């Protein structure tokens, strides 16, 4: 009787072990992005938001940050791509590991993961954390802020 349980445990362990880099290729899904591909030359740095249906933290981000993000310095430095945790995934994306938490924000440079924020820390902490991620990519969103 223990043999099927052991086989199931081994199968689960094998499924959960992921390679160091996961190449994810599929159709892009985001506002103002072609469904056929992502134009990495037009905007080489993107912020990928991985969300899930029914995720209350995704809904909070969409309510608190989403409307202003495209107009923010961070949104101009890293336009938003949005995908469901179950896909479809943007074309040509290479991740360090598959997201398991929603929302997950992944900073991509030419399709490669540069930095990651797992979870939504709230409106007071989101932008400083994204600024840190942009700094890691060699960008400064603060330099893009308009005086006013």
UniProtKB/TrEMBL annotation:
<dbReference type="InterPro" id="IPR036249">
    <property type="entry name" value="Thioredoxin-like_sf"/>
</dbReference>
<feature type="signal peptide">
    <location>
        <begin position="1"/>
        <end position="30"/>
    </location>
</feature>
<keyword id="KW-0732">Signal</keyword>
<protein>
    <submittedName>
        <fullName>Thioredoxin family protein</fullName>
    </submittedName>
</protein>
